[in-house]
Amino acid sequence: MTGQLIGQLILWLIVAVIAIAIIYWVMRWLYKRSTKEIAFVRTGFLGEKVVIDGGAFVWPIIHDITPVNMNTLPLAVSREKDEALITKDRMRVDVEAEFYIRVRQDKQSVAMAAATLGRRTLEASNLHGLLSGKFESAMRAVAAEMDMAGMHENRHTYVERVRELAQDDLEKNGLELESVAIIDIDQTALEFFNPSNRFDAEGLTALIKDIEERRKLRNDIEQDSMIKIRARNLEAEKQALDIERDSESARLEQEREVEFRRAQQRAELARERAERDTEAESAEITAREAIEKARIANERGIAEARIASQKEIRAREIEQQKAIDADEIAARETTETARILQERAVQEARISNEKETQALEIARQKDIESEEISARETPARARIAQEKAVAEARFAMDRVTLLLEIER
What we know:
Elements (H helix, E strand, L loop, with lengths): L2 H28 E3 L4 E7 L4 E3 L3 E3 L5 E7 L3 E7 L5 E2 L5 E12 L3 H10 L7 H20 L4 H6 L1 H16 L4 E13 L10 H210 L1
Antiparallel strand pairs: 1-4, 2-3, 2-5, 6-8, 7-8, 8-9
Helix pairs in contact: 3-5
């Protein structure tokens, strides 16, 4: 293989590397891919192109892309209090719902969503202000065709009707309504009905009428129940009193019988106890006399032994106290002598130190005074010499001036 062929191979290899790098750069920076979540619409050179699950080249300046979110977005719509829905029977109803929308999975819908909504599809909050009016309109239209009880009992029907009406408007934006969830349906509080409004006035009248009728019916039921309960309680109380009277009679009869038998038993027991007490008392008196004699003798012996022991202990304590007092006196005298000697030595050392300190202080004071006197004399001498020189110069000048004056 010649050198020329090797050079050509190297050249072609370099060209291939450069071409691959250029293609990678073009693909990296100019080729845009869509994902399962985000599609996009390319506009500009060569017209519009919708990209779903694919990619396309996007050249700067001549192309522009609009991303379109393909995810399902929840939009919460709540109408309550003053903004509550008005039903067919002129009632105000608080409704809280959630609408789940998404862009249709076809190119025409994606292009329509990009044209009418733009980048607002990326966030549900950006679509709320645009679509909440459509959903509210559908909710109000269906509510006007149903009464409040029908809305509550047939939520599925209400949801399907709202979904059908809202879907027609969403198709114009390339959207589809995936589902509708009614979270809560409840009657609006009476304070938010406006008596000056015809619909509210009719609904408020019907509502108050129904409430009062229900209250009257509830009161009648409560009163009837109360009367029946009282009658039943009275009858039960009479039966309870009869039962209690019979029970009391039987109890008294039984107590009388028991008391009679108890009195007989008490009399028999008293007689037997008196006999036993007499015998026990005699034996107890004899035993008590013997015990008392033994106790007195024992106490007398214990007292004599305790007195002798106390005398011996007292004598020992006196001897010990004398020895302790003698030891304390000797120890105190020794300690006092050592303390006096120590204080004398400390006093002499302190006096010696004070004398040395005073001598050093006097010498230092003399040195300081000598230095101060010398320092004061040096400036004074210099000042006197300076004043003398100035006086001599002034005298010489005055002399020259006088000679000049005389010569003039």
